[in-house]
Amino acid sequence: MSEMTCTDLVAIIRECAGDSDTADLDGDILDVSFEELGYDSLAMLETAGQTQRRYGITLDDDVVVEAKTPREFLDLVNGKLVAAA
Amino acid sequence: MNKPIVTGIGVLAPTGLGTEQYWAATRNGAKGIGPVSRFETEQYPVVLAGEIDGFEAREHLASRLLPQTDHMTRLALVAADWALADAGAKAEELPEFSAGVVTASASGGFEFGHRELEALWSKGSEHVSAYQSFAWFYAVNTGQISIRHGLRGAGGVVVTEQAGGLDAFAMARRRLRDGAGLMLTGGVDSALCPWGWVAQIACGRLSTSADPERAYLPFDSAANGFVPGEGGAILVVEDPESAAARGVARDYGTFAGYSATFDPPPDSGRPSALRRAIENALDDAGCQPSDVDVVFADGAGVPELDLAEAEAISAVFGANGVPVTAPKTATGRLYSGGAALDLATALLALRDGLIPPTPNVSELAPGIDIDLVTGQPRRADLRTAVVLARGYGGYNSAVVLRAPDKP
């Protein structure tokens, strides 16, 4: 499976947790924290669950909540995808 | 402290969205019961419900809230918005810890839970939403309303089936006595999905009639159970001094008295404790039975329960001694939303001096000696109203409301 992009992540977040009340997710949000975007830990668990199903990888809940920004989340996912390839 | 006043009302009911739309429909005896449209009922013995039509959650709520809320929570959030707006209360202007939320809940978020259970058994646990952890929960409406408006005062939830709307109102009164300035209270329920349906059918009191005009007929000789519905009301109740301090100039009425009792076991041979609830509530209000101008009945729709209620009303007020109404025959029974909506209806009746009718009921059963308002609304000078509610399992509650003092 190809690398997960920020656009892919935004699509999943919108589906799982709704659009951000505070920022335009189509803008440059790579280094804006999920907290600032308005997503709490449950929103991130929901997003991680959908990511796992779509990409066929396993992400520990503990590791997921450590990813504070989209960039960190994508690094985590793409690291798993490289390891699985 | 002084007795609390109601300063805001938010209603979502099968007969209307918003207080004035609902009230216009109710005083004209409009009807909101029909065949269930939300899911296929072919394999079930119960086919009618009071459904809310025309509610589009995304017109009222941000998309962030949709994946994490059951239908009944969306209704409750909108009812709370409308109640606060009606009260002219801006949450951000209220002292953070002196405003709170107490709602009633009879079942929690069944539709959300149904969908997640289906995902669990058809696809596996990894497909269950993380939001299921709270979206089904009895306390979820209180929590979501509190978060939405930043109301960090005392909160709570009451689970007493269809008596819940009155019991939550009373718990809100207790929080005001403890020092809160403003409370949001009431109840909104909905369980119109297959899982919710079988749970409701199991109580044995639902009507199996397919005729919307003959299915829910409390006190009628053709009573044959009740029709369930969805919706309810959220009210803003305040300490009068605290309301005056924020500039409130008008209110719907005073919460004058309350009592709750619990029935003896069904096989004890002892009578229902509903009469005692009414008498105690009148005592609490400092009222005589002769002061009461109208009674909003629980209206179970089950012959023996109707008779017990009529006997309790006649024992306190005398046979045919006070006008009685049950406008809920237009909406079905709304669980925790039912008595909350009756409180709103009673306050509107006091405001306009008009008792709304009991649609569909025409011929009282033998032994029912009450002056039930049927057919047309009745004009009357209304100062004091009593609202009754009973919950499955033995809950009885009574509230006394008094019209605002005339300026």
UniProtKB/TrEMBL annotation, chain A:
Residues 3-81 form the Carrier domain. It comes from the Bacteria. Keywords: Phosphopantetheine, Phosphoprotein. Pfam families: PP-binding (PF00550). One of its GO terms (molecular function) is phosphopantetheine binding. Signal peptide: none annotated. The keyword Phosphoprotein applies. This is Carrier domain-containing protein. It comes from Kutzneria albida DSM 43870.
From TrEMBL, chain B:
The keyword Transferase applies. InterPro entries: Beta-ketoacyl_synthase, Ketoacyl_synth_C, Ketoacyl_synth_N, PKS_Beta-ketoAc_synthase_dom, Thiolase-like. Gene3D superfamilies: 3.40.47.10. Pfam families: ketoacyl-synt, Ketoacyl-synt_C. The keyword Iron does not apply. Residues 1-403 form the Ketosynthase family 3 (KS3) domain. Its EC number is 2.3.1.-. This is Act minimal PKS chain-length factor (CLF/KS beta). It comes from Kutzneria viridogrisea.
